Structure formats: C-alpha cells, structure tokens
Amino acid sequence: MKTPPPVRLVLFDFDGVLARYSRHARLASLARVAGCTPARVAEVLFDSGLERAYDSGALGTATYLQRLGDGLGCRIDPATWIDARVAAMMADPAVLALVAAVASRAQIGVLTNNGALLLDAMPRIVAPLFPLLDGRVLCSGALGVRKPDRAIFDKALAHFDARAQETLFVDDLFVNVQGARVAGLHADTVVDARSMRKLLRRYGLA
C-alpha cells in the first residue's frame, strides 16, 4: 500500500463530523419562541431558501435574522438563534479528543456550510476544542461560496497558507469530499469516532 504524503493541515466539517445535528430539535426550539409549529419554521427558514442564502453569503446576519423574525411574526435575536442551534447539536467526546490530538501533529481548522452566526455558537457546542479553534473556523457565509464548489477549498487553503497536497479534508457528505478532491486535497468521509480514527491513522495522525 502506498504511504500517504505528510499532512500539515486537517480541515474538519462541523455538522455531522464534530457534532451531530438535529434539524427537528432546532425547528422545535425556534417554534417555542415564535409560538408556531415546527413546520411553519421549516417553511420560513428552509423552504423559502432563507437559510441557504445566508449560508451562501448572499445575506448578512442582520438581514437574515430580520427576515426570519418577520416570517415567524416575532423577534429573533442572535442569542435566540444561537440557543436553538446549541439545542440541535450534540458533540461526541471521543471525536473531540481525536481532533485535539491531531492539533499536536498538524494544523487544524473547520470548513463548514453555515452563516457567520455559527462562530458564536461553536464554543458552546464543542467547548473542549476552544481556544484551539479560535480564528480557525471558516464559514461559507463569510467566504461567499459553499461546499462542494472548488472555490471554497481554494479560499480555505489561502487562509491557512497551506498546500492542497498537504491538506486532509474530512466531511460526512461524499459530494463535499469529491469537491475537495477536485481541488487537489486529500479527502474522505467519516460518520463517527471509529471511522475518524481509522482515517487519521491512515495519515499518521492518530
């Protein structure tokens, strides 16, 4: 078996990799605040394209929250949004321990399809990885492009001053892995701590 080249940067996806995400729990949390059904929140947030527009960088945070609140008939401030996001997430301590261990061998970072508000929620969701991840989380909303577009990987490499052939990207969706591979990165899917450990060992990182 061919030995993989040295990896100097590992980029992790957030939702589905560093923490499990329950859309239902998030919708339920916002519905309680708005006094409506989770189905109504889904219509305003997802079916309308509002969330995707925010994740893509087409909307700023203030406009995004204003439109979300208008659609739900109530005020949604950053704290309310963050509380709902935190309620929807559950981190696996074994995964977080693996990521922390990688940080002693290579640079680490996060590359996620989310708007900038996630930056304020992450320290509550994956607290053991902070301050390791301070300044090392890249959101698609801030970059103006979403995975699996090649441009987002090029921007991530530029941010970390890294070379594609020395970078490993980890995601739970194969379509995003394919995008990373097109950009020249090493990339693979993981679904839990076991699969992540197996992948990291392949690159001498665990």
UniProtKB/TrEMBL annotation:
Q: Which domain of life is it from?
A: Bacteria
Q: SUPFAM superfamilies attached here?
A: HAD-like (SSF56784)
Question: GO: which molecular function terms?
Answer: hydrolase activity
Which keywords belong to this entry? Hydrolase
* InterPro entries in UniProt: HAD-like_sf, HAD-SF_hydro_IA, HAD_sf, PGP-like_dom2
Entry keyword annotation includes rRNA-binding: no
Name used for this protein in its record: Hydrolase of the HAD superfamily
Species source reads Luteimonas terrae
